[in-house]
Predict the 3D structure of the following.
Amino acid sequence: MSVKSKVIEAIRQIAKEQHVTLPELSDDLSLHETGFDSLAFAILVARLEDETGVDPFTISEDAAFPATVGDFVRAYENVPA
Amino acid sequence: MSPREIFALRDHLGAELTGRTLSDAHHVVSLTDILSQTVLGGRLRELSGRAVLLKLSDQLRSGLVMIELDGIVRRMLLCPPDINPAHLDALIADAGIDAVVTDEPDRWADTGIALVVTAQLPLKATAPARTERPTEWLMLTSGTSGVPKIVGHTLEALTGAIVAEGPAKGPAPVWATFYDIRRYGGLQIFLRAVLSGGSMVLSDPHEALAGHVARLNARAVSHISGTPSHWRKLLMSGSAAQFSPRYVRLSGEIADQAVLDGLKAAFPNSSVGHAYASTEAGVGFAVNDGLEGFPADYLGNRNGVEMKVVDGSLRIRSTRTAHAYIGSNAAALTDDDGFVDSGDIVELRGDRYYFVGRRGGIINIGGLKVHPEEIEAVINRHPDVRMSRAKSRRSPITGGIVVADVILADGTDPARAKEIRGQILDQCRAQLASHKVPAVIRFVEALDVTPAGKLARTDA
């Protein structure tokens, strides 16, 4: 499974658990518009860390939290394996 | 006080009750004629009036030494088996120890403690001793970090709840506990056995649970106590099926509804009760209605135990509490009015109080305070869950999130893990604020339990 599809699947799973109705997940959708609150993002980052072994937002001190779904996915894609 | 008014353990051990025993995995000692025997090689007189450290490698000799020393020595400090040797010097200084009873006399040869008495089996015949003075019982708190605190009790305080309850109905009980009797919870059971005219079966740290249960059965144990973690382990082991005690008691941790129901199902012919007690606060109360928490009308003065809730925590004043922390820099044990702050946080829902956790065990989730026990109680309600532990995990987004490790009941199909995880999360979302719902649930094979029988909480 590609990194992108792993991330998208985790987002859908958490949306289901949190009863969040997601809009269509395009790359330029702003994370704010996903309907996720900070807790939902915290859950997402923790689950992805368990699944992929990386937490791109803790590794890099200066990394700004991404603004869009595309940025978020790239944060995982760009982590050196 | 005249010596006649002082009751020591020996004064509860007349020869008129026959067939009483104290046993462990290796020995059975008759309590019937215990007063004319000695575990100290006949050296009790030398210990009269002393401050004695009990440092023994087994519970059986420890119990026999307690019976022999009580009413003769000035104070005795009980060392639990897991004591950190590096803390001994500080404890010896704080308790003013001037004698040690041990089974390893060589280790004490050059320690500066002049009097070293060896406890040994088999017992030897001796002339029965007479009670001389009230002995101060010193116990250690079970906290995990730093030097434990020394807590001072009297036999009267330690046995207050036992005397108040009166003798058990029916034939003399055979008591057992998963605790070590050198800790408050285990000592309560040992004292019950001595005062109730019954027998007692001791635990052994080197014995597998199945072997322990076989021994409990062989000795016809009727009354048994342990922490909820002890009991969950027994329920998970599959050994419970061969065991049928009359009375099952939980203490030392929060008894949630799941473990109470689990025990009631496993032992349909038993009374299942949970007791609230701590080394400092003594025995507060017992709850025997099969429900978690306790009725709100337990607050106030009830059978000589006064309880109130201040800033969320349970405060207790009674003649059963410890009287002081012992040592040069010891803090006050009670407030100015004589109440012990238990540090146990309770919450009123309807006409009942529920324990939600320890004040010191709060985890911080995005700036909000969360008691892990409250989350575990909800998770444990799932029928396929046997035990769980909630803790915090660092999060770059919120600072912290709740994660939970869960042990599934024996024989749960691993293919159902995903479905069960979803059900647990649904359950948590329905009953907990959103920041308390675990972000991640991991299924694990085992969870650490401390030597005191409590779920290990390393991040607390």
Summary: Chain A has four helices and no strands. Chain A has one domain: 3-77.
